[in-house]
Specification:
Elements: E1 6-15, E2 19-22, H1 23-29, H2 34-41, E3 45-48, H3 56-70, E4 80-84, H4 95-102, E5 109-113, H5 119-132, E6 139-146, H6 156-159, E7 164-174, E8 179-187, E9 195-197, H7 208-212, E10 218-220, H8 222-243, E11 253-256, H9 261-271, H10 282-285, H11 292-300, E12 309-316, E13 320-327
Parallel strand pairs: 4-5, 4-6, 11-12
Antiparallel strand pairs: 1-7, 2-3, 6-7, 8-13, 9-10, 12-13
Bound molecules: acetyl coenzyme *A.
Acetyl coenzyme *A (ACO) binds at residues 32, 36-37, 40-41, 116-117, 156-157, 160-161, 195, 222-223, 225-226, 229, 259-260, 263, 287, 289, 315-317.
Length: 335
Amino acid sequence: MISKIRAAITGVSGYVPDYILTNEELSQMVDTSDEWITSRTGIKERRILKGKNKGASAMAIEAVKKLLHKTGTDPQEVDMLLCATVTPDYTFPATANIVSAALGLRQVLSYDINAACSGFIFALATAAQFVETGAYKKVVVVGVDKMSSIIDYSDRTTCVIFGDGAGAVLLEPDQEGYGLLDFKLHSDGTGCKYLHKKAGGSAFPVTIRNFLENQHYVYQEGQAVFKFAVVNMAEVCYEVMQRNGLKAEDVHWLVPHQANKRIIDAAAERMGLPEERVMLNIQKYGNTTAGTIPLCLNDYEQALRRGDNLILAAFGGGFTWGALYLKWKYDGHRS
Ligand code: ACO
């Protein structure tokens, strides 16, 4: 009997820039404190990409380069590269194209996916379809954001949350029952008013006026977003568990988007998971938007075992949210 082809993750990697922006440094820039940021978000520090004209691609290239090296993948073998980002180098061409060109991926289909903080899981589910149909055999999914390029560092309500970083995974076909088993993804455009970057798109090209009004930066109504996120991320995780017959003890890891520790705790509680089965690195990197989930997988790779059940979950601008259920394919660190 021929079993269904699934898309399994066969390698992970991550890249964060060197510069560490601490809560202490932020509290010299805006009216905030380490105590407020830590207790309200769980964040202690975040990374910032410095250097003239360095865009998100600079981090994505590093993450994908490491991934190809680690997995022994020849750039010529890569069939497809998807890049999840809301901070592309340019409006066009896609950052995925820039990354592919820089790494010598010549036989590749590459494009970007914009689903804000849910970008990585949206891209992973999309990429998996190409693997499951048999169309492609080696697919790279990279999540990257240079949030520092769209954050107003005089706005204490947003600047404490975000950081820069990238993470990448390799997807390959599997017929032994590993890989992506289920997903549930949602979008609700009525969330636009609570979380957006107004200027710089085709509706509001940057003008001197909207520039002076800081409309080229992220606008977020934190509490409204928080309320929606805390309920919906928890519910979608629970729903994916239910429809796959998973009890709390069957889930080895929750891999949550790292936006706010209180949102992560709520999801874990709804799922009945103890904190030692929840991946957490928000304290080191803050919210790197599309980068958070692959950066978590990279940080925890050593602890992962073949056959582990993982729930990946995210919530973000759009609104967008969802959860993926996947069975991990390999033991520990792949080198
Ligand atoms: N330091 C000190 N005080 C602050 C700060 C700060 N950095 N930021 C806000 N405050 C103040 C506010 O001014 C307010 O003061 P007031 O009571 O005198 O008016 C008070 O703290 C409470 O403000 P809230 O906005 O209610 O604080 P909250 O507990 O909601 O935390 C936060 C704010 C961290 C932004 C939270 O709402 C949150 O995490 N929201 C969800 C973020 C998220 O998940 N975004 C989605 C992903 S992002 C994307 O997709 C690109």
